[in-house]
Amino acid sequence: xxxxxxxxxxxxxxxxxxxxxxxxxxxxxxxxxxxxxxxxxxxxxxxxxxxxxxxxxxxxxxxxxxxxxxxxxxxxxxxxxxxxxxxxxxxxxxxxxxxxxxxxxxxxxxxxxxxxxxxxxxxxxxxxxxxxxxxxxxxxxxxxxxxxxxxxxxxxxxxxxxxxxxxxxxxxxxxxxxxxxxxxxxxxxxxxxxxxxxxxxxxxxxxxxxxxxxxxxxxxxxxxxxxxxxxxxxxxxx
Length: 238
Ligand code: FPP
Fold this sequence. Notes:
Strand 3, helix 4 (about 105-120) and strand 4 form a beta-alpha-beta unit. Helix 2 (about 30-50) packs parallel to helix 3. The chain is of the alpha/beta class. The protein has seven helices and six strands. The relative contact order is 0.19. The protein has a single domain (about 5-135, about 175-225), classed as Decaprenyl diphosphate synthase-like (Undecaprenyl pyrophosphate synthetase), CATH 3.40.1180.10. The chain has a six-stranded parallel sheet, sandwiched between helices. The radius of gyration is 18 Å and the shape is globular. It binds farnesyl diphosphate (FPP).
């Protein structure tokens, strides 16, 4: 498949780390650790396929409700993931970006993330977007606040607000909507991931748990995408 003409933006809900750990009689955090290999494979395969944007749902606005020790482990993992991989990601022209309420992150991981984004900002390969403290409703709420402020201060009229206005106030307005959203581990819901942006995305669900997710699974998802007909509300032209 030549993804250059097909897939521009791939979104992945990396689910099932806890269940993977349990199935191997390990602690939940071991599942998050094991997730790194799958992240590597997804980044590599998307790069090979010419995908321009890969958004990984790494931590949701709701994930703060998890036990403190698990949250703290994931945050430490985020920082060490960046430290361990920045050299090779940068070397492969990957641009690291992030979406979400980033100010909620502890200063250690936040600084590592900001440094990585700064270091790779001119890279022209894959955009690796980490969704961190991300929620689709939070994103839309934040956009609404900004727009309401612009109305309050007389910058714009309420009657002039269009879908484009809202899209322009999302966290990453330059990033095109995802073509496909993949969720691992058998759950079939969006769980607040890219709610506005996924309005017309193809949804792909697999039972494979995220730590077991390999290139061949991503290839299967891309193949399934190829057979879908995207009409965006229109009718088939042929
Ligand atoms: C879902 O599995 C996974 C998460 C909520 C956290 C994802 C975190 C990582 C992949 C690691 C940190 C991120 C980076 C970029 C290094 P789950 O824990 O909900 O699994 P379960 O549904 O089986 O319990």
